[in-house]
Write a structure and sequence with these properties.
This protein is of the alpha+beta class. It contains 2 helices and 4 strands; from the N terminus they run H-E-E-E-H-E. The strands form 2 sheets. Strands 1-4 form a two-stranded parallel sheet. Strands 2-3 form a two-stranded antiparallel sheet. The longest helix is centred in the N-terminal third of the chain and has 16 residues. The radius of gyration is 15 Å and the shape is flat.
Length: about 80
């Protein structure tokens, strides 16, 4: 939730200023997780995984880059070192 809210706010500002700037944002997807609430019985009382996946797709569709911490930084799209 916190990451999603922050990136939503950032995307709103980027869209207002220059949507192309979204390409400069890299989200390291395996360093965050969706909110889940255990039910105490081995299951989940709440699971926001699908909402998190939808949000990541929205960010990617806007031009943000989804990467993993295990991806060599030299392979990140559009990044010039």
């Amino acid at each position: 939730h916190c990451v999603k809210s922050t990136i939503d706010d950032l995307l709103t500002e980027i869209a207002a200023a220059d949507p192309v700037l979204a390409r400069k944002v890299y989200l390291v997807t395996d360093c965050m997780s969706s909110v889940t609430v255990p039910d105490g019985k081995g299951g989940l009382a709440a699971d926001f995984t699908s909402q998190a996946e939808t949000a990541l797709q929205k960010f990617a569709d806007a031009g943000m880059n989804l990467v993993r911490s295990t991806d060599p930084i030299t392979s990140w799209p559009g990044l010039r070192l």
